[in-house]
Amino acid sequence: xxxxxxxxxxxxxxxxxxxxxxxxxxxxxxxxxxxxxxxxxxxxxxxxxxxxxxxxxxxxxxxxxxxxxxxxxxxxxxxxxxxxxxxxxxxxxxxxxxxxxxxxxxxxxxxxxxxxxxxxxxxxxxxxxxxxxxxxxxxxxxxxxxxxxxxxxxxxxxxxxxxxxxxxxxxxxxxxxxxxxxxxxxxxxxxxxxxxxxxxxxxxxxxxxxxxxxxxxxxxxxxxxxxxxxxxxxxxxxxxxxxxxxxxxxxxxxxxxxxxxxxxxxxxxxxxxxxxxxxxxxxxxxxxxxxxxxxxxxxxxxxxxxxxxxxxxxxxxxxxxxxxxxxxxxxxxxxxxxxx
Length: 340
Description:
Layout: E1 2-6, H1 11-22, E2 26-31, H2 34-41, E3 47-50, H3 56-62, E4 68-71, H4 76-79, H5 81-89, E5 93-96, H6 101-118, E6 121-123, H7 131-144, E7 149-157, H8 163-168, H9 171-176, E8 179-182, E9 185-188, E10 196-197, E11 206-210, H10 214-218, E12 227-233, H11 237-241, H12 245-250, H13 257-262, E13 264-272, E14 278-286, H14 288-306, E15 311-312, H15 315-318, H16 321-329, E16 334-339
Parallel strand pairs: 1-2, 1-4, 2-3, 4-5, 5-6, 6-15, 7-12
Antiparallel strand pairs: 7-13, 8-9, 8-12, 10-11, 11-12, 13-14, 14-16
Helix pairs in contact: 1-14, 3-5, 5-6, 7-16
């Protein structure tokens, strides 16, 4: 197995380098800056290949011989499509760590046919907020049966964001531009269905806002639901007002190891069916950036070893949801589905 990693010199990319090295996977690091790539590869023995994101031929050549590509370089709406295109051209499966809802829809709309024709599988959104939320939503849907609505709430607390995450957070798209699924398609909408959400073990309920969460773009592709929307827990007034690029540039690249360990995240999903019947599911963990590296590396390993249908797939279409969540349980992630 040979994996190509694009974005290796970034914060999440370096965590992916460490995970690939820990698992002893043959890896090539791809990017435009040799010095930063060599720094990221230090002590691993990984090969380094230079390629310009905007030079399709050089990027495709850099992915040559790889069974799969991991892309951790965002903002994906601006930087992602050339990497997907080059991976498909190189005949390599593709996984990324995007959390950008509108970009995920773009990947499905743009690359499904090309990936199927090339015989490769493309799976966007394999990060802490995307993969687990898609998996638990699928399991909740299985337990619920016919559903009227499916709501996903995500809550981060503790820890800190990276500069890359903040640069990817377009407040107009994340909040006001959030898409809701209904009537067979995705549209913007007005007020969220909830102002607060009861997360497991928390009292009182937590304030939530409507938000452009990844599972809203992926889950309706594999479960039947009348309406689905996403909620983000906590107060994000600063993000809603936007953060000046100069302010972001002055911040640390990302949380240090201790801050990462202190960061906690919870995904809470509720399905409502006829007669008011409700099924809930939760996934909880710590160190979202570290878990993202684990999720992305495990995803490409499963694609290479087990295969999946060619084309662009949601996480639960490419992987068995319960099996993947059980794997994450070995990394400190807790999950359950409750029928009530």
